[in-house]
Amino acid sequence: QAQLVESGGGLVQAGGSLTLSCAASGRTFSSYAMGWFRQAPGKERDFVAGISGGGATTYYTTYYADSVKGRFTISRDNAKNTVYLQMNSLKPEDTAVYYCAAKYLARFGYRSDYIDGGSYDYWGQGTQVTVSS
User: Fold this and answer.
1) How far apart are CA 47 and CA 66, in angstroms?
2) Cα-based angle 34, 58, 98 (whole degrees, multiple of 5)
3) Please, are residues 31 and 104 in contact by the beta-carbon 8 Å criterion?
4) 48-106 pLDDT, tens per residue?
5) DSSP 24-38
6) What single string gives the DSSP state of each residue in 43-106?
7) Are 82 and 23 in contact (CB under 8 A)?
8) Nearest 10 degrees: CA dihedral of 118, 66, 75, 39?
9) Over the Cα atoms of the chain, what is R_g?
């Protein structure tokens, strides 16, 4: 059973940057696809970004929500069991609690495999990101 712990959230001015980290427990991290989701007050949880597991390779596929494409970058370091979300050019509408999630995925998959939060097996506790205008 995997445990996920997010960190790196905080308060930043519009236009600024933050990097979120998600540390995972377990010995088969590279077999898990990882996703970042966010939930703003009074809104539904939304997909932000996803990355394939990689397995024995360092080749990954990545997917992004249209609202963050070009501003956010998801990456992972399987040697450290950690996935990252680099967030640049932050906007007030990026304010939300950000969650990382993991799911076993035996193949690279398709975009639909990553955007469905209900398909993930494990979730972190979330980290607050607040962007002031």
Assistant:
1) 10
2) 25
3) yes
4) 999 998 777 778 999 999 999 999 999 999 999 999 999 999 999 999 999 999 999 87
5) E-SS-GGGEEEEEEE
6) S--EEEEEE---TTSS---EEE-TTTTTTEEEEEEGGGTEEEEEE-S--GGG-EEEEEEEEE-S
7) yes
8) -50
9) 14
Tokens coding 34: 């990882």
Look-up of token digits 């035996």:
106
Query: Is residue 7 a contact partner of residue 127, using CB atoms and an 8 Å limit?
Result: yes
* Structure letter (DSSP) for residue 121: S
Do you know the residue count of the chain? 133
**What's the rounded Cα separation, in Å, for the pair 2 and 94?**
27
